[in-house]
Amino acid sequence: DVMDRSHDGRQPRANMQELDAALTQLADSLMPTAAEHQAQLDVFEGVKALLQARYPGARVHLFGSVANGLSVRHNNDIDVCLELEGVDDQAGKAEVAVAVGELMEAAGMAEVLPLPKARVPVVKFVAPQTGTKCDVTVNNVLACINTKLLADYCAIDPRLAPLVALVKHWAKRRAVNDPYRGTLSSYCYVLMCIHLLQMRPTPVLPVLQQLPPTFRRTVGPWTCEFCDDVESLRGFGAPNRESLAQLVWAFFEYWAWRHNYSHDVVCVRLGTCLHKDDKDWTRRIGNERHLVCIEDPFELSHDLGRTVDRQTRAVLHKEFTRAATLLRDAHDPLDMLFASY
Ligand code: CTP
Ligand code: MG
Fold it and tell me: Tag placement on the chain: N or C end, fewer CB within 10 Å?
């Protein structure tokens, strides 16, 4: 009997079918309902109308998780990009962030907070009727393009979205999803999940930026090229038969015991790991420490792990190891795995 086989320490002890059923059910319960999704789209339409009244002719885009199909229920926020001609430098974007803050204040939005000095100038506020948190950025073209890349990955294999939902849920519960406090952004966790699925011995996802490009945009110094013909790639991952539970296990096992933190750079663009030397990410420069390295797929100078310091790297590694150890050794690991920190 499979369940009586002695534990070899390299696979979870739990019954994988049962674990898979429980994780699948949890992932489903984390997905927003159609009504919740619609409520967020309605808030977006309201914000868009306000912006277009103030900036006639401007285009307004929804990006981030609500747009790429990777949103989880407890996270009630939307990311909005205002596209304005002639506003290209940091100072110009900062000015608009402040002006949009005043506009939203006047429109009755709550908790309006402009952050003009951020790497990407932004104004944050809350739509009072629904409590939806909104981030408005200006000419954040790269974010709109990477949202499309993530959406396209999502459409190729149905295992990406539930894997991301579980990892985001875990990261929130374990308090390791806060780039302002030295841990990792949701966007970074999504890239880590895509990378894992690209790297399975039988891959679950292709490397869209290595296929003949059908989508091309240039943004400042960055060339964004990838294959967005998802129709022809649906079923790409079918030869890989791994279950959600096996992939969740693989994710934590990788970050606990396989990732080489001193050398590796996770690179979704190439579907492999680069060496830190290849990127010259070998030492601290200013506030960029490069202790955990995840390359942005388009803005190649951007290390999404740059916010991690020695102390928070230790916290992250401890949490990955805790998760992997629980999955390996516990008969019924889920309550502990997702326990609030
Ligand atoms: N983004 C980015 N670079 C970052 C962080 C974010 O380009 N360093 C962009 C990405 O387009 C991402 C969007 O901003 O999709 C929103 O980021 P974030 O809120 O971290 O990701 P979500 O997937 O929206 O996660 P959540 O569901 O937690 O809101
Ligand atoms: Mg978001």
Answer: N
Strands of 264-267's sheet, edge to edge? 272-275, 264-267, 293-295
**Nearest atom, ligand 1, residue 190 CA:** 23
- In sequence order, the 6+-apart residues with CB closer than 8 A to the CB of 114 are 97, 98, 100, 101, 121, 122, 123, 124
Predicted ipTM beyond 0.95: yes
The domains of the chain are located at 2-29+143-337, 34-139
Fold of 34-139: Beta Polymerase; domain 2 (3.30.460)
Q: Atom 9 (ligand 1): residue with closest C-alpha?
A: 143
How far from chain centre, in Å, is Cα 299? 15
pLDDT digits (tens, 9 = 90+) for 264-312: 999 999 999 999 999 999 999 998 999 999 999 999 999 999 999 999 9
Looking at the CA of residue 168, tell me the nearest atom of ligand 1. 28
User: Which are the contacts of 22, defined by CB distance < 8 A and separation ≥ 6?
Assistant: 334
Residues with CB under 6 A from ligand 1: 63-65, 70-72, 75, 77, 79, 142-143, 146-147, 168, 185-187, 190, 304
Residue whose CA is at the smallest distance from ligand 1 atom 8: 304
For 161-208, what is each residue's pLDDT tens digit? 999 999 999 999 999 999 999 999 999 999 999 999 999 999 999 999
Q: Kindly report, residue by residue over 211-242, the tens digit of the pLDDT.
A: 999 999 999 999 999 999 999 999 999 999 99
Q: Please tell us whether the domain made up of 2-29+143-337 is placed in CATH 1.10.760.10.
A: no
